Amino acid sequence: MAIFRGGVHPDGCKQLTRGAPIGRLPAPPAVWLPLSQHIGAPALPVVAAGDRVLRGRLVAKKAEGLSANVYAPIAGTVKGVVRHITAGGKKQDHILIEGDGSDESVSLAPLASLTPEAVLARIEEAGIVGMGGAGFPTAAKLNVRGRVDTLVVNAAECEPYITCDERIMLEYTGELLQGVRLCMLACGAERAVIGIEKNKPEAIAHLARQCGEGISVKPLRTRYPQGAEKQLICGCCGRTVPEGGLPADAGVVVVNVHTALAVQRAAVQNIPCYERVMTVSGGACARPGNFWVPNGTPLHAVADFCGGREDCARIVSGGPMMGEAVFSLKVCTSKTMSSLLFLEEGECRPRTASACIGCGRCVQACPMGLMPVFIDAAVLAKDYAAAKRFGAAQCIACGCCSYVCPAERYLTQSVRLGRKIVKERKL
Questions:
Q1: CB–CB of 161/279 below 8 Å?
Q2: How confident is the model at residue 2, as a pLDDT?
Q3: CB–CB of 399/362 below 8 Å?
């Protein structure tokens, strides 16, 4: 088995929700749907204030180029396009829908046939994006026929606390595997490999019994960030993605577990992407679990239902290694928000940055083989050309360097800033 270099072993903390079957969060009184729930251009509204919409109705269509459709997750009345805060702290355009308490819905038209072209078109129509967190429009990712022979399914779920993908594997096994085959059909892959960390033995055994011809399960060592795209491809296929290249350059395309399930729901059940399974967890959450949550649900509705305390030490959207600290529960869920964590003091490590002691631990931990300490120094000196030479553009923002730093330096944030400036300035 190919093994990537570096990485860390954070406490998994998955016992809080690992055994919790997927429930359903009640529909909130209103939803704020971000027009930008994906990489690329924001979607364009196709509804106006006063319009009544049903669950499953298209409310914003994809823009030209890279973009994705947006659908109503509840039935109700459109109040308009409003500026609303996001997890990143900025205000962006959202469609505000006030629910009417009904459960009326519409579906996509059934597909006449499951050809590669029809499946790709349905994935695009349904507004499916990478639901592991990246948000790349899935139809564009899978449009690589003739370039790949292997589909890798990211089932590693290496971030602490998060268990929504594991529950999907156990509870929606048939639908998931059907979604995997549809993704294989769409991209032209001859085989699929489902990469799962060994700390999920039940899911490994469960899928291995049912995967069938052409699909295999690959148990992977438990080491963060096993689920990062390049590390996952290395572990599942023993292939290396060239620097600056894409997985397709190594003959591979990668999709997340939840993304494959969304493909099945769209192509077979005719359900567009307007809700997702989220893990709600942490020591300051009275009723942790995994739940289907409508997109655009205010986080305070999630907190109220699960008993999450707003006065806890930290609230995090996503995992604790790569997620974002949430400053307001007015922020709303999206297609890419996999979890919401309410953390106690003992679950958060206080940071007081001090001078680098030259220990080299960040270099040893970096799974991309970079030297975060040198990139950090270049960024602080505003020498972005040097940051590029040290590989800032190759950083995957996994957080390993900050995790191991005994000086508590903000290495991940510094390298991420360097990567952003290098990209913006096209250095």
A1: yes
A2: 61
A3: no
